[in-house]
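hey can u check if this looks right to u? its 155 residues, i copy pasted from the old doc so theres a chance i mangled smth
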Amino acid sequence: MVEVKVTHEGSGAVFEAPDGWQVEDTGRPEVLVVLEPEPADGTVRANLVLTAVDTGGRSFRDWQNGTEALLPQELSDYLVLDLHADEVDGRPAGSRLAHHVDAEGRALVLEQRFTEADGLGLTLTATVDVLRYPLMAEELSACCASLRLPRGASR
C-alpha cells in the first residue's frame, strides 16, 4: 500500500492518502476531500475528508460532546460502534467508528480521528460502503492514524 502525504492548506494539518486517490475542490477552505478512483461497479467512492473548524473556545471534551450529539441528527441510522480516547502528536484526541445510511439508502462505515490544537478542531473521516469495509479497513484506519497537527501548533 503506497501512501501519499496530503496537506490541508488552510490549517497545515497533514495526513496520508492511498496513492492514486484524487483531491477534490469543495469550494470550502475548511474542508479537504480525497476520493478513490471511480469504482467500475458504481459503488460509493471511498473517501477521506479533513475538516478544520474553529471550536468556538470550547474545550476538546465539550467540542466532541457537541459533535457526538450532532451526528445522529445529521446522519441517518447513525450508530456508534467504537469511541475511545487517543492522541495525535501528544495532544488529546479520539477515534470513532460508526455506521450510517446515505440519502440513497446505502449502508456506510465511517472511521474518524479527531483532535484540537489552538482552538482548531481537526477531524479526519474515512468513509466506505459496508460491504467493502472489511477489504479497506486496515488501509483507511492507517490513513486516519496518520493525521498530524499543523507545524507550530501547541503540543
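The chain has a mean pLDDT of 92.
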